[in-house]
Amino acid sequence: MTFLIETIIACAVFTMFVFLIARDPIKSIFNYPPAIIERCDQLGLVDAGNKPGGVGFYVKKVGAMILFGVLLGLLVRYVNGCLTFWSGALTAYALWVVVNWFDALVLDCLWFCHDKRFVIPGTEDMTAAYHDYLFHIRGAVIGMILGIPAALVAGLIVVL
């Protein structure tokens, strides 16, 4: 029951962050399908300083993954009562996977693909790109892989 409540709360918090970002969709342009990014770049809307790649970009990503791992570790240790590395890592990974697929299926495929708030001015004619469900599913598979290091960090936090 604890895990179910955690996943509901985690999905709600994640949804709140997405809702806040939806106010200015260009800020999350690098989460959009490539065709939309390319069009926005042609329109001069893309800030070159935010483009993926480079040392700074990956340092931020690794830092975020470690931070999520620490937070998940504390959560599964003190809320779920996990006491071993593997129980902590696996519980954290399960929580990650639930939120990851909620994001892909509900937030991306149902909400993002159909809500006009996410359509960036100048890309209104790109309906097919906005409805690229496979892009979001591939992203979820990548998200599952990215969850592994975070879960391993969570396992370490549990045993420390």
Can you describe this structure?
- The protein is mainly alpha-helical.
- It has one domain.
- The protein is built from six helices and no strands.
- α3 packs across α6.
- The model has no long low-confidence stretch (mean pLDDT 93).
Helix and strand topology:
Elements: H1 2-21, H2 34-42, H3 54-78, H4 85-111, H5 127-130, H6 133-159
Helix pairs in contact: 1-4, 3-4, 3-6, 4-6
List keywords for this structure.
160 residues, mainly alpha, 6 helices
Structural class given helices, strands, pairing?
A: mainly alpha
Counting structural domains, the number is 1
Instruction: Give the overall pLDDT as a whole number.
Output: 93
Content of β-strand: under 5%
What kind of oligomer do you see? single chain
Distance between the termini: 26 Å
Unreliable stretches (pLDDT < 50, length at least 5) are none
Overall outline = elongated
Helix content: over 70%
- Total beta-strand segments: 0
Largest sheet: none
Rg, Cα atoms, Å: 17 Å
Provide the succession of SSEs. HHHHHH
Question: What can be said about this structure in brief?
Answer:
By secondary structure, this protein is mainly α. 70% of the residues lie in helices and 0% in strands.
